[in-house]
Records
---
Amino acid sequence: MEALVAVIIGVLTACGVYLSLRRRSFPVVLGITLLSYAVNLFLFAMGRLTIGRPAVIDAAAAGYTDPLPQALVLTAIVISFAMTAFVIMLALKARAELGDDRVDGNRPT
């Protein structure tokens, strides 16, 4: 299972870097989104998930799971969603103003 999660994180990171290096704005936004998914999955996997244990410390329970990775990933998901919406609106505004969505600023000849 760990190897599968590592492969998924690697594929998400590779696709995110590849798409982030494109000239058009939509693939760049998609690449940044994939990179954020890879980071979120990495943080979630590094949190050592424990199944069937409470998230809050209880004297009667044998153990507990650490709620910090889940809280970090949830916060990161909300922030990345807001940033993605902002960047999409910025790209749409740039497309409307310039008539092109290239991120390097060069016009096609």
---
Amino acid sequence: MRYLTFALPKGRLATKTMTLFEKVGFTCEEMKGDSRKLIFVNEELKLKFFLAKATDVPTYVEYGAADIGVVGRDTILEERKNLYEVLDFGFGKCRMVVAGPKEMEAKLKQNELIRVATKYPNIAKDYFNNQKNQTVEIIKLNGSIELAPLVDLSEVIVDIVETGSTLKENGLVVLEEICTLSARMVVNRVSLKIENKRITKLIEDLRKALSEKEA
């Protein structure tokens, strides 16, 4: 039997995912220790796990380096890889929004040409160009997105909001909601064919575990 390989994002999402996997019998004791290893193996169940940067997880899955990945929906929408999104884990919930000073609300409704700063240019472009039919100038930033409207780099931003406290502290508000986000399981298209029985059972078991958790 071949290994079933999982790519997980580093941090809290990996911890929550492994807690969920353990409920359906997919365990990996190696991951619980303080180790600098890059790949963790459950030899008995023929499972391999590795931790990667969240934005790289879809790439590992698309190219078959991993059969299965877990990643936020924001990364799936932004990276646009050719893979199957098969399950919503329901944790890691947040929102992708358009935010800015309150007075920008009117400009957004009038579909005026504005500048939008974001770490997610593909999501922003799709939202404004395809969903709102509004022409905007997208400015790609890599961090501290809230700074952009404060120093007149852009009129608004497109970013992830969890509690909204950072926006509030900087005098910004949510102007429009683009979509809700949460952790999703993705599967390589070829892997779903050659490991259909194992992967399908895992999906069913995880779906059952998630429904029991909600009940």
